[in-house]
Amino acid sequence: MCTGGCAKCLGGTLIPLAVFAFLANVLLFFPGGKVIDDNSNLSEEVWYFGGILGSGVLMIFPALVFLGLKNNDCCGCCGNEGCGKRFAMFTSIIFAAIGFVGAGYSFVLSAVSINRGPKCLLSNGTWDYPFNKGNYLSDQDLWNLCKGPSDIVPWNLTLFSILLVIGGIQMVLCAVQAINGILGTLCGDCQCCGCCGGEGTV
């Protein structure tokens, strides 16, 4: 596949993933599907906006750049047909790095939250983190330590797991585009100027 076409495919995949990550993070503000009276009782990781910023908004910019690479005008500078396309592919490497960092932020944040468990209402009437180092993942009986909001443990676990998976996929896709961008920088794009110096047609 030509480097521009590959980038467009990757960009088209990143857009829906960013939307899903954004929505998953928004749902975390409603533990168990309910509105709580005091927002300070939400888990700290929710306020770090891993899905909204890292895998969401920050991922939109690389995705749009990747989508536009295939249609980028490659006949551009100093009389060299491939110069414009190669520069665009080089630029995509920078955006791929930005996307990788954003996805990595969401990935790490989600992993930390899953390991820590949610903040919830305990039997003594206080809000705290009752779980220790992921021990609740293998022992669902411990979930009863949370008295509210209802279904808070599976709610947080499911949504942060979704963010973890999305972040991981986005990191892989951005890494693929970084490699694709390097190839495009060195070889050009077969759609317009041939590969590795070949003189194709637009």
UniProtKB/TrEMBL annotation:
Annotated compartments: Membrane
InterPro entries: L6_membrane
Keyword Transmembrane helix: yes
Span of the signal peptide: none
Transmembrane segments: 12-31, 46-67, 87-108, 152-176
Primary localisation category: membrane
Cellular component GO terms, alphabetical: membrane
A Pfam family the protein falls into: L6_membrane
Topological type in the membrane: Multi-pass membrane protein
Keyword presence, Cell inner membrane: no
Keywords: Membrane, Transmembrane, Transmembrane helix
Record-stated family: Belongs to the L6 tetraspanin family.
Protein name: Transmembrane 4 L6 family member 4
